[in-house]
Write a structure and sequence with these properties.
two-stranded antiparallel ribbon, alpha+beta, 107 residues, elongated, 2 domains, 3 helices, 22% strand
Length: 107
């Protein structure tokens, strides 16, 4: 198990002690306004988790590199969605339907 403790203070003359196994934390400092944050991470080792491991990182196929899974978050040029590469005919049909609907609304 990984334990990280980060002291958010200009005064680093503090002593920290913690025991993760019983979820206790004790902070001793000469400054009463010290902020402390911590993060505990671990890897589940139960049967359910072992059968459903999540890959940490998977490389994109060459043809999908330079595209975005969620392009709306990045404002890239038109056609930079990974869906454009995976389903070009479907994307084309959607655009044609949108264009037809726009023309109908103008008439």
């Amino acid at each position: 198990m990984i334990r990280q403790v980060r002291i958010l203070s200009a005064d680093f003359n503090q002593r920290q002690s913690y025991r993760i196994c019983v979820l206790t934390f004790r902070k001793e400092s000469n400054d009463s306004n010290v902020e402390v944050s911590w993060q505990v991470t671990g890897i589940r080792k139960d049967a359910y988790a072992n059968k459903r491991r999540i890959p940490i990182e998977v490389d994109k196929p060459q043809e999908e590199r330079g595209t975005y899974l969620h392009p709306e978050s990045f404002n890239p040029p038109e056609g930079k969605s990974v869906l454009t590469v995976r389903y070009p005919q479907m994307i084309q049909q959607i655009k044609e339907m949108q264009d037809a609907a726009t023309r109908t609304m103008k008439d």
